[in-house]
UniProtKB/TrEMBL annotation:
Species for this entry: Alistipes hominis
Source organism, top-level taxon: Bacteria
Record-given protein name: Glutamine synthetase III
UniProt cross-references to InterPro entries, sorted A to Z: Gln-synt_C, Gln_synt_N, Gln_synth/guanido_kin_cat_dom, Gln_synth_cat_dom, Gln_synth_gly_rich_site, GS_Type-3, GSIII_N
Domain spans labelled GS catalytic: 179-616
Lineage, opening ranks: Bacteria, Pseudomonadati, Bacteroidota, Bacteroidia, Bacteroidales
UniProt family annotation: Belongs to the glutamine synthetase family.
Segment forming the signal sequence: none
Occurrences of domain GS beta-grasp (ranges): 85-174
PANTHER family xrefs: GLUTAMINE SYNTHETASE, TYPE-3 GLUTAMINE SYNTHETASE
C-alpha cells in the first residue's frame, strides 16, 4: 500500500493541465444549445402546440394528450437532430441525487425493422421501480410500481446521446417519493399567499416567484491520490489523517490565483454548463486548500434546483477528463473548512418587483418591511424545522464548527434594518419607514478611487440565515444536499406565515381599522414576538449558545433527534394545511432520513474498522518490530549499563506505539459491539439514535490514536496519502 501511495503521488506531481478546446462561438451563441428551450420550441413545435406549452410553463395550465403528442414529436425530432438516440425520465428520489432509466427511441415497425418513436404517453409518464428507492414504508419491497411524470416547467435537455426529461416521482398510491413534488407544491403555496399580500400594495400583481441562487463549494483531489484512500472512495471523506503543517492558517488560498490544472477544469466545466443552460457566473478559490466554488445567476427556484443537481452530475464527469475527483462531502478533511451550498433566496412579482429589496417610497418600504418581518416570523416559528431540513450525517460534521453556521438557526439583519425594526416596534402607526438602499463612501487620501456604494447590511458569516441587502442567505445547506429539501421547508413556512398575516390584517380591516394602520399594527406585534430569533452578533461563541437556549431557540445537535421536527404536530399541521406534504408523506420522509443516517454511520464504521485493523495496525506493528530489533542489537552492542542512555528515545517510542495500538484495538472492538447491538433495534428512529450515541462517538477517539501513529511511523511505510499530499499536490 505504501508503494501505491508513492506511485500515485509521483504521478500526480507530473500531471499537466488538460486544456480542452474552447467553443469557437461566444457564450451567448451556444448557451442552452442542449436545452429544449423557447427558441427550440418555436422552431420544432406547431404554433398552437407552442402556445399551449408556454401557458403550461408560465401559468400551470394542464396539457391535453393531443398537445402532449405534438410536443413529444417535436422534442424527439430536435433530440435526434442533436444526435440523441435515447430518452429518460430524470427524477430526484429520496437518495438525495438523481435517477434515470434510458430507453431507445426505436420501436419495431412490424416488417422486420425499427422506427424511431416517442409519443406523448412516453413523454408524460414512465414507470420506474418504486421499491428500489427509499420510500419510508410507503411501498413494500414486493410492491414495485411507481410513476415518473413530466414537469413541463423545467425544460428537457440532452446529456451525451440521451434526452433527459425532468419529472416528478410518485408511488402507485400517489404519495410523493422525491424532492420535486413537495418543492413544486411549496412554490404554489408561497405564490398564492404572497400574491394575496402583494395586492395590499399593488392590485395588478398576479403571480409571485421564488428565486434561488446557490453557491456550490467543492474540493478537487487528484484521482490517483483519491483511489489510494479507501475512506474517500467509500464514504466521501477522510476518516483519519494528521493535519498538514500548513493548511489554511495563512489565509493565502481564498480568492488567490487559480491553479493551472484547476483553471483548465473550471473552463471546461463552464463550457458544459452553458451548453446545458446552467448560467454559471462566478468561480474562485475557497478558503481551504484545494477547495473551490461555482455560483450561477439567480433563477426561478425549481429550475435553479434542477440546474444544481445537473451541475453536480456534470462536474464529476468533467473532473475525470482532468484526472480529478470532485469531493462534495461537507467535511472531507479535518481541521480545515468544510463545504456548504449557500442558498440565496428571494421573492419577486410578475411586475418585476423584488419583495425583499427596499423601495423608493414609503409605500414600497412598507411592502418590503411586510415581507421581511414575515420571513423573520416564519424562521422564528420554524427554526427547528429549518435545521431539520439541512440535517444529515454528512452535514453534521460541518455545522457548529468555526467555519460554518452554528447549529442554531437565527436571523441576521444588519445595523440599518435592525434600527428600522426597533423604531417600528416602538413607534406610532403614523411614522414613515425610511432607510437607504445604498449609501456613498469615499476613500480618504486617495483621490482617484471612485465613490463606493455601501449596502444596507454587512455580511455575517456566522449567521445561518442572513439578510444580505435584497435576499436572505440560508447558509446552513450542505454542499451535497438537494436544495429542494431546504427550499420546500422555507417556502412552505413563509407561505403559512403570510396566510396568517393576511388573515390578521383582514380581521382588523373588517373591524374598521385603516389598511395601512392594520398592517403596521400586525407587523409591530410580529417584530416583538420574533425578536428571539434576531441575532446580529458572533454565532460561534459559547455565550450565544447559552443565550439562544434562554431565548427558546432549538439548540439540538443530534441529527436523529433534529429529524423529529418533521413529525412534530405543529409542523406537520402546517405542511398539511399548505397542501405540501401529507402526514403519511412526512412520516415516510422522517423514516428515510433516520435510515439514511444509520446507513451512513454504519458504512463509515465498517470502513474505519477495516482501515485501522488491516492497514494502520499492521504497519505500526511492523515499524515497532524494526525499533525492537534495533533496540535488541544496541543492547548487545553497548551493554546493559549504557543501553538506557543510548536507546531511551527508541524505547519511549516503542511504548508510545504500543499504547496507541492497544487503544485502537480496544476502541474498535467496542465500536463493533455497539454496532451489533444497534443493528438489532427495529425502530429506525431508535436505531439512528443508538448509532449516534454509541457508534459515531467512537470515530474521533479511534482517529486520534491513528493520527498519532501517523506522526511517529516511518513516512516511507505509511500506507495512505497524507493531508499534505491530498491538499497541496495539484
Amino acid at each position: 500500500m505504501s508503494e501505491l501511495r508513492f506511485k500515485v503521488v509521483e504521478e500526480a506531481i507530473k500531471r499537466k493541465a488538460v486544456c480542452m478546446p474552447a467553443p469557437a462561438e461566444r457564450a451567448s451563441e451556444y448557451f442552452g444549445m442542449y436545452v429544449f428551450n423557447e427558441d427550440k420550441m418555436r422552431k420544432y413545435l406547431p404554433k398552437k402546440t407552442y402556445e399551449a406549452l408556454f401557458e403550461t410553463m408560465k401559468h400551470g395550465k394542464a396539457l391535453s394528450r393531443e398537445i402532449a403528442d405534438s410536443v413529444a414529436s417535436g422534442m424527439k425530432q430536435w433530440a435526434m437532430d442533436m444526435g440523441a438516440t435515447h430518452y429518460t425520465h430524470w427524477f430526484q428520489p429520496l437518495t438525495g441525487g438523481t435517477a434515470e432509466k434510458h430507453d431507445a427511441f426505436v420501436e419495431y415497425d412490424g416488417k422486420g425493422g425499427v422506427i424511431e418513436e416517442f409519443s406523448g404517453k412516453l413523454l408524460i409518464q414512465q414507470e420506474p421501480d418504486a421499491s428500489s428507492f427509499p420510500s419510508g414504508g410507503i411501498r413494500n419491497t414486493f410492491e414495485a410500481r411507481g410513476y415518473s411524470a413530466w414537469d413541463a416547467t423545467s425544460p428537457a435537455f440532452i446529456v451525451d446521446t440521451t434526452l433527459c426529461i425532468p419529472t416528478i416521482f410518485i408511488a402507485y398510491t400517489g404519495e410523493a417519493l422525491d424532492y420535486k413534488v413537495p418543492l413544486l407544491r411549496s412554490l404554489q403555496a408561497v405564490d398564492r399567499a404572497a400574491t394575496e399580500v402583494c395586492r395590499y400594495f399593488d392590485p395588478t400583481v398576479s403571480k409571485v416567484y421564488s428565486y434561488l441562487g446557490w453557491e456550490q463549494e467543492y474540493f478537487l483531489v487528484d484521482e490517483g491520490l483519491y483511489a489510494a484512500r479507501p475512506d474517500m472512495v467509500l464514504t466521501g471523506r477522510t476518516l483519519m489523517g494528521h493535519e498538514s503543517a500548513k493548511n489554511q492558517q495563512l489565509e493565502d488560498h481564498y480568492f488567490g490565483a487559480i491553479p493551472t490544472r484547476v483553471m483548465a477544469f473550471m473552463k471546461d466545466l463552464e463550457y458544459e454548463c452553458w451548453k446545458l443552460g446552467i448560467p454559471a457566473k462566478t468561480r474562485h478559490n475557497e478558503v481551504a486548500p484545494n477547495q473551490f466554488e461555482l455560483a450561477p445567476i439567480f433563477e426561478e427556484t425549481n429550475l435553479a434546483n434542477d440546474h444544481n443537481l445537473l451541475l453536480m452530475s456534470i462536474m464529476k464527469k468533467v473532473a475525470r477528463r482532468h484526472c480529478f475527483r470532485v469531493i462534495l462531502h461537507e467535511k472531507p478533511f479535518k481541521g480545515i473548512n468544510g463545504s456548504g451550498k449557500h442558498n440565496n433566496w428571494s421573492l419577486g412579482t410578475d411586475t418585476g418587483v423584488n419583495l425583499l429589496s427596499p423601495g423608493k417610497t414609503p409605500q414600497d418600504n412598507l411592502q418590503f418591511i411586510t415581507f421581511l418581518v414575515n420571513v423573520m416570523m416564519a424562521v422564528y416559528k420554524r427554526n427547528g424545522l429549518l435545521k431539520a431540513s439541512i440535517a444529515s450525517a454528512t452535514n453534521a460534521h460541518r455545522l457548529g464548527a468555526n467555519e460554518a453556521p452554528p447549529a442554531i438557526i437565527s436571523v441576521f439583519l444588519g445595523r440599518q434594518i435592525s434600527a428600522v425594526l426597533d423604531k417600528l416596534a416602538s413607534s406610532s402607526c403614523d411614522d414613515t419607514i425610511e432607510f437607504d438602499d445604498k449609501c456613498g463612501f469615499r476613500m480618504g487620501g486617495i483621490d482617484h478611487i471612485p465613490e463606493l456604494l455601501i449596502d444596507n447590511t454587512d455580511r455575517n458569516r456566522t449567521s445561518p440565515f442572513a439578510f444580505t441587502g435584497n435576499r436572505f442567505e440560508f447558509r446552513a445547506v450542505g454542499s451535497s444536499d438537494n436544495c429542494g429539501g431546504a427550499m420546500t421547508v422555507l417556502n412552505t413556512a413563509v407561505a403559512d406565515q403570510l396566510a396568517e398575516f393576511k388573515e390578521a390584517v383582514d380581521t382588523r380591516v373588517g373591524k374598521g381599522e385603516p389598511k395601512e394602520q392594520a398592517i403596521l399594527s400586525v407587523l409591530k406585534a410580529y417584530v416583538r414576538e420574533s425578536a428571539a430569533v434576531h441575532f446580529d452578533g458572533n454565532g460561534y461563541t459559547d455565550e450565544w449558545k447559552e443565550e439562544a437556549l434562554r431565548r427558546g431557540l432549538d439548540c439540538a445537535v443530534s441529527v436523529p433527534e433534529i429529524i423529529d421536527q418533521f413529525v412534530a404536530p405543529t409542523h406537520a399541521e402546517m405542511f398539511v394545511r399548505m397542501g405540501v406534504l401529507s402526514s403519511k408523506e412526512l412520516h415516510a420522509r422522517a423514516e428515510v432520513k433516520w435510515e439514511t443516517y444509520t446507513k451512513k454511520i454504519q458504512i463509515e464504521a465498517r470502513v474505519l474498522g477495516d482501515l485501522v485493523m488491516n492497514h494502520i495496525l499492521p504497519v505500526a506493528s511492523r515499524y515497532q518490530g524494526m525499533l525492537l530489533d534495533k533496540a535488541f542489537k544496541m543492547k548487545e552492542l553497548f551493554g546493559a549499563d549504557k543501553f538506557g542512555s543510548v536507546a531511551g528515545q527508541d524505547m519511549a517510542l516503542i511504548e508510545k506505539i504500543s499504547v496507541h495500538m492497544e487503544k485502537i484495538q480496544t476502541l474498535t472492538e467496542k465500536m463493533i459491539e455497539a454496532r451489533k447491538v444497534a443493528n438489532k433495534i427495529a425502530s429506525e428512529r431508535k436505531k439512528a439514535i443508538a448509532y449516534h450515541d454509541t457508534v459515531a462517538v467512537a470515530f474521533d477517539e479511534i482517529r486520534y490514536h491513528a493520527d498519532k501513529l501517523e506522526e511517529v511511523v516511518d513516512n516511507e511505510m505509511w500506507p495512505l496519502p497524507k493531508y499534505r499530499e491530498l491538499l497541496f499536490v495539484r
